[in-house]
Amino acid sequence: MDIQRYQDQKATKYEKVRMKQKKWWEENKALIKMLSNENIEHILDVPTGTGRFLPLYEDKKYTIIGVDASKDMLEQAKNKNTSAFLIEGNAFNLPFDNNTFDLSVCIRFLNWFDINDVNKLIKELKRVSNTIILGIRLHKHMIKNEKKGLYRHDNQEFHKILKKLNLKIKDEYKVDNKGYSIFKLTKGAI
User: Fold this and answer.
1) Cα separation of 9 and 6, whole Å?
2) Superfamily of domain 3-187
3) Which of 71, 51, 53 lies closest to 4 in space, CA to CA?
């Protein structure tokens, strides 16, 4: 993933452009649904980007840590005026102890990486949190959009990762009819 694409002007226009997409609002609905009826105190939002979800967490009075590799995206997140702690960092090597968070949220990120990096990232999220909410685009086999650098991941490979990491799908929200879903994962056998 090219971090440069989220610097400068692109960071300031990120939300304005994406808010026009139907999936933007479907992602919000999915997250609100998955946050309900949960005993959550500490949330990790990675990558937090412009902080689009921070107000949703703020309403619930959670302790929120947002991590992103882009300083410019974090500057946009600061404008949300929430009580979130924002940290510049690497999602693959999070600066937190094991089980620091009740929940990690990772949306609009996994499809930038090949399946080996997806495995590493999910493993790291599992290390720091008890529950994971993540968005991923799945297909019957892996497809890479060379122009955009985005992946649609092999559905079976994704489920093998979950099994290997001993993660259970607690909930799934289908964002669109093109294989994009948001999953709530918990530690435990599938």
Assistant:
1) 8
2) Vaccinia Virus protein VP39 (3.40.50.150)
3) 71
